[in-house]
Amino acid sequence: MTKYKKYQDYVIKDGIFIGDFEQMYQDFLDPWEQTEREKFASEKAVCINIIKSLSCKNIIELGCGFGQLTNRINQICPNVLGVDISKTAIAKASKRYPHCKFEVSIFPHLDLLRKIKPDCIVMAEITWYVLDQLDEFLFFLKKEFPNTYLIHTLMTYKSGEQKYGANKFTNLREIKEYFGMNYLESGEIERLEYNGGKRTYFVGRFK
Ligand SMILES: C[S@@+](CC[C@H](N)C(=O)[O-])C[C@H]1O[C@@H](n2cnc3c(N)ncnc32)[C@H](O)[C@@H]1O
Q1: How confident is the model at residue 17 (pLDDT cuts 50, 70, 90)?
Q2: Are strands 12-13 and 16-17 parallel, antiparallel or unpaired?
């Protein structure tokens, strides 16, 4: 018997942040259909293309889940670390991709980032879950890592549908305004199954 019926309810329920990621990963085998669906997500292919074009050498992926994207990055940049708050997710990622580096770490990961000094940070579909720490993270990046690229992807929802986080941003324009970076590229992907939602992406840095 699981704590909730749907994996989504462990995360945000009725517009309220729950954030029980570890229990969710223990109770559900493939939340967000990371294994089958995410490997075909177009913005993830865009991330890989951007990393290649920037020749990044030292990358960290925040909120890597089962490590699918970390593994793809590893094929073009062996110096990549995937981190996630859930030890179950990290244990599965390490088992699936034993040649990649993974560790448990909690956003905003400031000490870890100071230690690693990445030239590129990847945040794929994690931002809705770290809104309360986002300002601290952005302040830190601006001050200590202005040259580091941030590659960011985030699902946005049909106008009026979103409850949680709508006070911060609801679409790509507002996301970019909030992050306040200089952007090399950004875009949106629409897909029938997103029901009017969009997968947004950008690459930027503070310099
Ligand atoms: C929607 S999944 C995205 C997984 C993967 N990046 C992808 O795109 O397929 C969000 C991930 O963020 C992780 N996460 C949520 N809050 C976190 C935090 N405070 N610190 C680190 N990871 C977190 C979750 O455990 C989950 O694996």
Answers
A1: very high
A2: antiparallel
Q: Write out the two tokens for 122.
A: 């990847």
Residue tagged 């997710």 (tokens) = 89
pTM over 0.85: yes
Q: Specify the DSSP element, H or E, that contains 187.
A: strand 182-190
CATH architecture label of 35-205: 3-Layer(aba) Sandwich (3.40)
Q: Bridge partners of 13? A: 16
Provide the pLDDT for residue 176.
Answer: 98
Q: Which ligand 1 atom is the nearest neighbour of the CA of 38?
A: 9
| 31 alpha carbon – ligand 1 mean position (Å) | 10
- Residue 133 has a CB neighbour count (10 Å cut-off) of 15
Structural tokens at position 199 = 């997968």
